[in-house]
Amino acid sequence: MLPTQTVQELAVQLDLQDAQLHGDLRLPATPRGIILFAHGSGSSRRSPRNRFVARALGEAGLATFLFDLLTEREEATDAYTAEFRFDLPRLTRRLLGATRWIRAQKLTAALSVGYFGASTGAAAALRAAAEEPEGIFAVVSRGGRPDLAGPALSKVLAPTLLIVGGYDTEVITLNQQALEQLPGEKALTIVPRATHLFEEPGALEQVATLAADWFGRHAPGER
How far is C-alpha 121 from the geometric centre of its chain's CA atoms? Predict the structure, then answer.
């Protein structure tokens, strides 16, 4: 365990079966769990919105892991063709690979895992949670497309919070439909006067507070 009152930040490389990925791992003192971020369409581990939320989760005593779901070559191709950002089997496989990697590292092996997903990354997070019904302690979706998780929704046992902007009307409907299919503890929170990217003053702060509260409520601490 890390010394009291320290925060360790590490840039890491994940050598998965089908890809070599890069990530940023942040470990506060005595973390209660670790949150893996699954970013959305056309984004990466450098997403300013996800990094903002990650900082808030760190202040709440949670470790965070932001990593790229696509290789550098895939990202370059996707920027022109958008062919990978909706490849849910690929994104889910990478998230599960990162989860196994985290559980194999000495610094993080004892920490319970939660998922934070944005946009299409939320669908990947839910699909991955369905693959490990007892292994993920909570899921939070920000402006997500949980509907893209399809039949996997009915297998998600992790407590799941769906957060949507009040002006994001089409996505609200999709989240309401997905919520009905989730069998476990669940909630849908609509942030008033916020659009899809939560760019309005104070909107992302609300997302961060909601996520920190949800993860904090369900984090079991060390396994």
Answer: 7
Helix ranges, 64-150 (H) = 72-81, 88-104, 120-131
Question: What number of other Cβ atoms are within 10 A of residue 120's Cβ?
Answer: 24
Spatial distance between the Cα atoms of 118 and 11, rounded to a whole number of angstroms: 22
What does the pLDDT average to over 130-138? 93
Q: What is the pLDDT of residues 25-73, one digit of tens each?
A: 999 988 999 999 998 765 667 778 888 999 999 999 999 999 988 887 8
Q: Are strands 20-27 and 8-15 parallel, antiparallel or unpaired?
A: antiparallel
Residue the block writes with tokens 């693959």: 131
Contact 13, 41 (CB under 8 A): no
Dihedral angle, C-alpha 40, 41, 45, 49, nearest 10 °? -60
d(CA 189, CA 74): 33
The conformation of residue 137, written as its DSSP 8-state character, comes to E
Report d(CA 90, CA 57) in Å as an integer.
Answer: 27
Tell me which residue of 89, 86, 37, 92 sits closest to 65, measured CA to CA: 37
Does the pLDDT value for residue 4 go beyond 60?
Answer: no
Do 190 and 172 contact (CB within 8 A), yes or no? yes
